[in-house]
Amino acid sequence: MSTANPTAKQSHNPKTAVILSILLAGLGQLYNRRYVKGILFIILEISFILTLGRFLNLGLWGLTTLGTMEGTDHSVVLLIYGLVSLILIAFFVTLYIINVKDAKRDALRIQKGERAPTFREAAGNVWDKGFPYFFVTPGLIMLAFIVILPLMFTVALAFTDYSQYNQPPRALLSWVGFDNFARLFFETGGAGNNIWQDTFISVFTWTIVWTVVATTLQITLGLFLALIVNDPRIKFKRLIRTILILPWAVPAFVTILVFAAMFNDRFGAINTDILAVFNLSIPWLQDPFYTRIALIMIQTWLGFPFVFALFTGILQSISKEWYEAAEVDGANRMQKFKSITLPHVLYATAPLLIMQYAGNFNNFNIIYLFNEGGPAVRGQNAGGTDILISWVYDLTFTLNQYSMAAAITIILGLIVTGFAFFQFRKTRSFKEEGNL
């Protein structure tokens, strides 16, 4: 007994529908007798070509050449046009792929003899299944032009020669490949002299030291104070907690400016009122070593209240029965801390602690507000306390070294992204519940 579907059309070839859809969006749908859908795809493609064809042509030409006539062609504008063209092409290619897959899917249904849905049924099916996508699509479009486009522009700028002495439209930009990155990592100057490499090594080293030391100190101090306040022998806990959280209530920029005045070499309270008792005067704002110490102390003061509040809540959630069981087993205070308190606290707060490190790695406010990254260092184009993010700011708004700033920004982003990704992957808090 034959089981073949009597309405099946073996002569209807899905490959033909795919080829027609590739040649012109909508032809495959017309081949499948889905006339309304086919006409809509054809109108969409023709409209895209007629309205954006000239813009895409200009954008792709500008992206590859960055202009050919000095004083007339603006390389930055052409670069932006090119990147916008790439985004528009990406959207068009996505719709084109949807068109091809739709034509193939309908052709397979016709070949198997399945009943093709009417236009109203198809529209209702698309609305039911694609309801989330209809609301997500406007956000994705805005994301592409508000977030992705600036990122693409920064990446592209890092491979050009855009600087103070080479600015459009007076001059045209050129693609220089990885030359900007080579100037940061290799000695490209004469007689082994490369100000970019020397500055990058110095700033990068200080950024790592700043991130590790300042963040570790604020976490350590917050945990230490939380353990003390959580001790059952301590009285007036509410008052103590309120006092310890007060630094968090004051806006950070206000605190930084107050400390900048207090650490002033000439009239600051640290030198004139405190150290003067011991006949000492420390050049807090003139010597990079002392400026860095002051910055670390200020960041510890600014950061510990949040960590203290975080740890305080976690410590109160630890069951007292665990400590009682440990005492029965003969564990001392240090053993209970290492085996119960610390693992529980780190397990619950690891993602937030990681973000503390990432935040301090890019902590522009304290570096700039305290001493604008100073003091100056001979032989470098960055201050003695500049971290990567503040150095990028100076290169962009003071020195006008746009391409080098973009290159450093890419390196900065890769470091933060790689560190965060690795740590989050290793953090149990971000694993599925069944995979712990």
UniProtKB/TrEMBL annotation:
What superkingdom heads the lineage?
Bacteria
Gene3D superfamilies linked to this entry: MalF N-terminal region-like, MetI-like
* Gene Ontology cellular-component terms listed: maltose transport complex
Q: What InterPro entries does the entry give?
A: MalF_N, MetI-like, MetI-like_sf
Q: Where in the cell is it found?
A: Cell membrane
Q: GO molecular-function annotation terms?
A: ABC-type maltose transporter activity
Q: Which stretches make up the ABC transmembrane type-1 domain?
A: 204-423
Lipid biosynthesis as a keyword of this entry, yes or no, is no
- Where is this chain primarily localised? membrane
Classify the protein's membrane topology as the record does: Multi-pass membrane protein
Instruction: List this protein's GO terms for biological process.
Output: maltodextrin transmembrane transport
Q: Which residues cross the membrane?
A: 38-56, 76-98, 133-159, 203-227, 239-263, 289-311, 340-359, 402-422
The UniProt keywords, alphabetically, are:
Cell membrane, Membrane, Sugar transport, Transmembrane, Transmembrane helix, Transport
Its biological purpose:
Part of the ABC transporter complex MalEFGK involved in maltose/maltodextrin import. Probably responsible for the translocation of the substrate across the membrane.
- What does the similarity note say? Belongs to the binding-protein-dependent transport system permease family. MalFG subfamily.
Name of the featured protein: Maltose/maltodextrin transport system permease protein
Its source organism is Jeotgalibacillus campisalis
